[in-house]
C-alpha cells in the first residue's frame, strides 16, 4: 500500500557539477565560474577548518561538554559554497546545522557551541553578521526569510536573502507557505535546501515522490539541483540565484544534493535505520578530497600548503575547545533577563521572589 | 509481574492495543524503523507492518489532520509528536478540528485520536524539547487530557486512551521514560478519568501529575523526618478532573500545594486552586499555593535546575502553607 519507487525516478534529473569527485573541472554553459588559485585555496581552507570545528564539537559532546551537536559532516561544500556566495549585505537564515555558513559570515564558532552546551539559546547578534539565529522548529525560518526579503524589496536595497532548510523540512506547511509568499511577492530570496537524503531516520522517499528541486516550478519559480558536495558548483549556482534575486527576478530554489555522513545529532544512532554501504558510496564523493585532488593535479598547491592548513585546523580545534570550556555558566538572573524589553511586573516579581528564596539557602548555610 | 521502564510500558500498551483492534494505527516522525527518538514504538513496525505503523512526512499539522481523516474512516490513530515544542504546528488541527468535530456532527462523528506528547524538562535538551504545554489543551473544550507518571499506569492508561472514543492528548514525562517498576500486564487500571492517591497523609495535600509526581513523593518522604505527613495525589486526568478525590483530601488536610513544571501564571494549577477554593473554602487553613516554572521561556539546559520545581521548592511551599 505504500508508494512504489517515485515515478520519473528513471530519468535522472540534471545535477549541476563543476568539479567531479575525482577533482576534474567540468564546464557548464550556464554556471561557469572563474576562480583564482587563491580563491580555490581559500575555499579548501574553509572546508577543512569547518570540518575540524565540527569534529571538535562532536568530541566535546562525547566528553559531556556539550548537551548535543548536529554535525555538518559531508555538507561542508554546500555550506561553504553557498556561504561564500553571499555579500555582506545579504542575510542568511540557518537551521541548526549551518556551522559552515556561520563560519563564512564571521560568527565565532564558540558562539555556536553556546546553544549546544546549554548556556544560551542563541548567543550571537543576527544583525552583526547578517546571520540569523539557529532555528530548531523545522521550517519556521523559511517564512521569516521571505518576510525579511519583502522588507529588503521595499527598502530598495541591493541585497538578497538566503534561507537554509533540509529535505525533511520541505514537508512542513511553513516551507510551502514561504514558497507561495516568495512567488506571489517576487521576493528576493534564495531557498537553499540541503538534501542530505535523511530526516533523522526517514529517507527522502518519505517526503517526496519527485526530485525536490522540481517542486519550485509548481510554485512558479526556478528550481535547480546542484552537486552539494561540489563547492565550485554550489558557489556558482548560489551566486547566480542571489544576483537574480537582487536584480528583481524573484526567488530561486536550490537543491544541494548531498549526504549526511554522520548521525542526525550526537543523540542519534543511524545503524538502526541505514546501511553502511550507502555511507561508503558517499565517502567517494567527499567534498574536501575533490578540491584537494584538483589543487594537487593542477599544481596549484603543494604539500606545504596542505600541511599548513592542517596545522591551522588543529590550532583552531584546540582554540575552540579551550574557549568552549571557558564559556561561563549563566547565573539564575539570566532566566529573567530579556524576556521582555520593557519592565514587566510579573517577571520582576518572580525574579525578586526567586532571589529571596535562594538567599534563604545562603543564610541557612551561614548559620 | 514484569519489570518495565515507563517507555517500555507504553510500548507494551501500544502493542496490546494494536493486537486487540486492527483499526489501531501508530503514526508520526521516525516511529517506524527507529522506533521513535525515545524508542517508545520500538519493534512495532516490524511486527505490525508499514501500513499500521506509519513514518509520516515531517509535518505535525499533517499528522493530526490525516489522523482525523483516518478516524473519520473508522481507524484509531495514535499520533506521536516527537517533542512537546513541536505540537504547535499541529495546534490548528487539534484545536479547531479535532476538538470540535464530534460536537458539530451532533455526535455522529467520533474521533478516537490519541496524541502522544513526550513532555517536560530535565534531560538537558536544547530549546523546544522541554516544554509543558498542557494548559493550552486543558483549555480546549472537546479534548481529554491525560498525563501518566509511572510504568504501571502508563501501560493501562495508553490502552484506555486508545479505547476511548474521544480525542485525547496524552502526556508522557520524558525524563521518567527510563524509570523502572513492576507492572502487572493483566491487571486493569483505574478508569481513565480518575486520580490516584499515591501517598496518604493528613497534614497537606500535594497535587501533581506527570514528571512532578516523583518529585512530590520524594518531598513527602523527606518531610516525614520533620514529622509532616504529606498526601500526594497523582491527577492522571487533567481534563476532566477527578474533583471527588481532590476535594475529599483537601477538606481533610486543609492545605494544598499544586506542583507542575509549566509556568505558574495562567498554568493548570490556577484551575486547581480556583476549584479548591470554591469547594473547600471553609476547610482551608492557607491559600492553595502553586509551585512551577517561571514566567520565562524554558531556559537553556544549564539553567534548568533553577527553573524546574525540585524537592526544596516543594517543601518551601509546604512550609509557607503551614506558616499561615
Ligand atoms: C516542527 C518540528 N518537528 C520535529 C522536529 C524534530 N526534528 C529535528 S530535526 C528533524 C529532521 C529534519 O530533517 P531535515 O529537514 O532533512 O534536516 P536535517 O536534519 O537532515 O539537516 C526532526 C524531525 C523539529 N525540530 N521541529
Ligand atoms: Mg535531511
Describe the protein's architecture and organization.
The complex is a heterodimer of chains A (367) and B (324). In chain A, strands 1-2-3-7-6 form a 5-stranded parallel β-sheet, sandwiched between helices. Chain A has a two-stranded antiparallel ribbon with strand order 4-5. Chain A has helices spanning 37-62, 76-85, 99-104, 109-117, 126-129, 140-155, 173-184, 215-219, 231-246, 276-283, 287-297, 303-325, 333-336, 345-366; strands at residues 91-93, 161-166, 189-195, 198-199, 202-203, 223-227, 252-257. Chain A folds into 2 domains: 37-330, 3-Layer(aba) Sandwich (Rossmann fold); 335-366. In chain A, helix 4 packs across helix 12 and helix 6 (140-155) runs parallel beside helix 7 (173-184). Chain A is an alpha/beta fold. The N and C termini of chain A lie far apart (71 Å). With 324 residues, chain B is α/β, with parallel strands linked by helices. Chain B is 36% helix and 21% strand. Chain B is built from 12 helices and 14 strands. Chain B has helices at residues 6-20, 44-48, 60-72, 91-98, 101-104, 134-138, 151-163, 212-224, 243-253, 268-280, 304-307, 311-322; strands at 2-5, 24-28, 53-55, 76-80, 114-119, 144-147, 168-173, 180-183, 196-199, 204-208, 230-234, 237-239, 256-263, 289-293. Chain B has a 7-stranded mixed β-sheet with strand order 3-2-4-5-7-6-12, sandwiched between helices. Chain B has a 5-stranded mixed β-sheet with strand order 9-11-10-13-14, sandwiched between helices. A two-stranded antiparallel ribbon of chain B has the order 1-8. In chain B, helix 9 (243-253) packs across helix 10 (268-280). Chains A and B meet through helix 4, helix 13 and helix 14 of A and helix 11 and helix 12 of B. Thiamine diphosphate sits between chains A (97, 136-138, 166-169, 196, 198-200, 260, 264) and B (29, 58, 60, 82, 86, 89).
Amino acid at each position: 500500500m505504500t508508494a512504489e519507487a517515485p515515478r520519473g525516478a528513471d530519468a535522472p534529473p540534471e545535477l549541476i557539477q563543476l568539479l567531479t569527485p575525482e577533482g576534474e573541472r567540468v564546464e557548464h554553459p550556464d554556471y561557469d565560474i572563474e576562480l583564482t588559485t587563491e580563491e580555490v585555496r581559500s575555499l579548501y581552507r574553509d572546508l577543512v577548518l569547518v570540518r575540524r570545528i565540527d569534529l571538535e564539537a562532536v568530541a566535546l559532546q562525547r566528553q559531556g561538554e556539550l548537551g548535543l551537536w548536529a554535525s555538518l559532516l559531508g555538507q561542508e561544500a554546500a555550506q561553504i559554497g553557498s556561504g561564500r556566495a553571499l555579500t555582506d549585505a545579504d542575510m542568511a537564515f540557518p537551521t541548526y546545522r549551518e556551522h559552515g555558513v556561520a563560519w563564512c559570515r564571521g560568527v565565532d564558532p564558540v558562539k555556536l557551541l553556546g546553544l549546544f552546551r546549554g548556556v544560551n539559546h542563541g548567543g550571537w547578534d543576527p544583525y552583526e553578521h547578517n546571520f540569523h539565529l539557529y532555528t530548531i522548529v523545522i521550517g519556521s525560518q523559511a517564512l521569516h526569510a521571505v518576510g525579511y526579503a519583502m522588507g529588503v524589496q521595499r527598502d530598495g536595497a541591493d541585497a538578497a536573502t538566503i534561507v537554509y532548510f533540509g529535505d525533511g523540512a520541505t514537508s512542513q506547511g511553513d516551507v510551502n507557505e514561504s514558497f507561495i509568499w516568495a512567488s506571489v511577492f517576487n521576493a528576493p530570496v534564495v531557498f537553499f535546501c540541503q538534501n542530505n537524503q535523511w530526516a533523522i531516520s526517514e529517507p527522502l522517499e518519505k517526503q517526496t515522490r519527485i526530485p525536490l528541486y522540481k517542486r519550485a516550478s509548481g510554485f512558479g519559480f526556478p528550481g535547480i539541483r546542484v552537486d552539494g558536495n561540489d563547492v565550485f558548483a554550489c558557489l556558482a549556482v548560489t551566486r547566480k540565484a542571489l544576483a537574480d534575486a537582487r536584480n528583481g527576478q524573484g526567488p530561486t530554489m536550490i537543491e544541494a544534493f548531498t549526504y549526511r555522513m554522520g548521525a542526525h545529532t550526537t543523540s542519534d544512532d543511524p545503524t538502526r535505520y541505514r546501511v553502511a554501504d550507502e555511507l561508503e558510496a558517499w565517502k567517494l564523493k567527499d567534498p574536501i578530497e575533490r578540491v584537494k585532488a584538483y589543487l594537487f593535479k593542477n599544481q596549484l598547491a603543494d604539500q606545504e600548503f596542505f600541511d599548513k592548513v592542517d596545522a591551522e585546523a588543529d590550532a583552531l580545534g584546540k582554540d575552540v575547545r579551550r574557549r568552549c570550556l571557558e564559556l561561563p555558566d549563566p547565573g539564575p538572573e539570566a532566566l529573567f533577563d530579556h524576556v521582555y524589553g520593557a519592565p514587566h511586573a510579573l517577571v520582576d516579581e518572580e525574579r525578586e521572589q526567586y532571589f529571596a528564596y535562594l538567599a534563604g539557602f545562603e543564610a541557612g548555610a551561614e548559620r | 509481574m514484569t519489570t518495565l521502564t515507563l517507555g517500555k510500558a507504553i510500548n507494551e500498551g501500544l502493542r496490546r492495543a494494536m493486537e486487540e483492534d486492527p483499526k489501531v494505527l501508530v503514526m508520526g516522525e521516525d516511529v517506524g524503523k527507529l522506533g521513535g527518538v525515545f524508542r517508545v514504538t520500538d519493534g512495532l513496525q516490524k511486527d505490525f507492518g508499514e501500513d499500521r505503523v506509519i513514518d509520516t512526512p515531517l509535518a505535525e499539522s499533517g499528522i493530526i489532520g490525516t489522523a482525523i481523516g483516518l478516524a473519520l474512516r473508522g481507524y484509531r490513530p495514535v499520533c506521536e509528536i516527537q517533542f512537546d515544542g513541536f505540537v504547535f504546528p499541529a495546534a490548528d488541527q487539534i484545536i479547531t478540528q479535532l476538538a470540535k468535530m464530534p460536537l458539530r456532527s451532533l455526535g455522529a462523528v467520533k474521533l478516537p485520536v490519541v496524541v502522544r506528547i513526550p513532555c517536560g524538562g530535565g534531560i538537558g535538551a536544547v530549546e523546544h524539547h522541554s516544554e509543558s504545554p498542557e494548559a493550552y489543551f486543558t483549555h480546549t473544550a472537546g479534548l481529554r487530557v491525560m498525563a501518566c507518571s509511572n510504568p504501571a499506569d502508563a501501560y493501562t492508561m495508553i490502552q484506555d486512551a486508545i479505547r476511548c472514543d474521544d480525542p485525547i492528548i496524552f502526556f508522557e514525562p520524558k525524563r521518567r521514560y527510563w524509570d523502572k517498576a513492576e507492572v502487572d500486564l493483566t491487571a486493569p487500571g483505574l478508569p481513565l478519568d480518575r486520580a490516584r492517591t499515591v501517598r496518604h497523609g493528613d497534614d497537606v495535600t500535594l497535587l501533581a501529575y506527570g514528571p512532578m509526581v516523583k518529585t512530590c513523593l520524594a518531598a513527602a518522604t523527606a518531610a516525614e523526618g520533620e514529622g509532616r505527613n504529606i498526601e500526594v495525589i497523582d491527577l492522571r486526568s487533567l481534563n476532566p478532573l477527578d474533583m471527588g478525590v481532590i476535594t475529599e483530601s483537601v477538606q481533610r488536610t486543609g492545605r494544598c500545594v499544586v506542583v507542575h513544571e509549566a509556568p505558574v501564571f495562567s498554568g493548570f494549577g490556577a484551575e486547581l486552586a480556583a476549584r479548591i477554593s470554591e469547594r473547600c473554602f471553609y476547610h482551608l487553613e492557607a491559600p492553595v499555593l502553586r509551585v512551577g516554572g517561571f514566567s520565562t521561556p524554558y531556559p537553556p539546559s544549564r539553567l534548568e535546575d533553577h527553573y524546574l520545581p525540585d524537592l526544596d521548592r516543594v517543601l518551601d511551599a509546604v512550609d509557607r502553607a503551614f506558616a499561615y
